[in-house]
Amino acid sequence: MSPVHHQPDRRSPLVFEMHELARQAGTMKQVTTTVPAPADLGNEVIGVPQDSDIELDLRFEAVTEGVLVTGTATVQLRGQCARCLDDIEDEESFDVQELYFYPGREIEDDEAQIVEEMIDLDEALRDAVVLELPFTPLCEEDCLGLCPQCGFNRNDDPDHTHEQQIDPRWSKLSGLTGDTQD
């Protein structure tokens, strides 16, 4: 069963024309460009801010079945550390690789197709970036996180401690021995 493919929006900066490849295996074109990031390129805790710059360095190569797109996408990441809740800002490069099949061929649901000699990189870019984002992003690999008692950021003072608290249910018994530490 062939999936229904939407008509690419020619105005989108992630849509590229393939006319010059002329469906001749071995022809290729190199594209280096900067495009604005689409909305929702990330997950709940880290992602690419909408309309921030994405630097694309791509190679479109005609092969027998279609066009093979390979290259990198360099993005700005913003999010929150999963341990200490500090803001994270970073630049990261992701590998993009997708084979777009020529029309008329039976393809699977997860395969991409060239529509009217155009390739829409939106889904391939999302796959390359979102699937590689960390599930629990950290500001530093050895982040100490927050103190579970008071919420103090332990990265600011690794020796942060609290005096041992007596369980309120046993506080009346501590007076029997005169020792409040046990």
Automatic annotation (TrEMBL):
<feature type="region of interest" description="Disordered">
    <location>
        <begin position="158"/>
        <end position="182"/>
    </location>
</feature>
<dbReference type="Pfam" id="PF02620">
    <property type="entry name" value="YceD"/>
</dbReference>
<dbReference type="InterPro" id="IPR003772">
    <property type="entry name" value="YceD"/>
</dbReference>
<feature type="compositionally biased region" description="Basic and acidic residues">
    <location>
        <begin position="158"/>
        <end position="170"/>
    </location>
</feature>
<protein>
    <submittedName>
        <fullName>Metal-binding protein</fullName>
    </submittedName>
</protein>
